[in-house]
Protein S100-B
Amino acid sequence: MECFELRGLEQQVVNYGRKEIRSQCLVPFCSHKERGERKTTSRKEELIFAMSDLEKAMMAIIETFHQYSGKEGDKHKLKKSELKELINSELSHFLGEIKEQETVDKVMETLDADGDAECDFQEFVAFIAVITSACHEFFEHE
Ligand SMILES: [Ca+2]
Ligand SMILES: [Ca+2]
């Protein structure tokens, strides 16, 4: 299948995260039963249907980022309020709830590698990698 070719796949995935997934009504995240009942009608749907759990998790990272980054200001960057909302809504089991503005400031300062006072996707992925690594340590020693 040509959509599995490595060349251009990265861009396809990025485009997916930005535009397509919203209109796909979260097909990759629905249950196996629902998916089984759904007829694949397009190449994009076939790709989503064929994705592994790891690939779906990667798509979830992209989708989640854009769900919050698109709320205010630059649609491709998280400002502090968007970052806070994302952490409190999507990472509460791993990070707990952020209440103090001071904590938000500190988190942004830590994540903001290029110093523009916002968190872009690359900075966000680095953040997810750090949390995932910490979870790995934690669950390894459980
Ligand atoms: Ca934004
Ligand atoms: Ca930044």
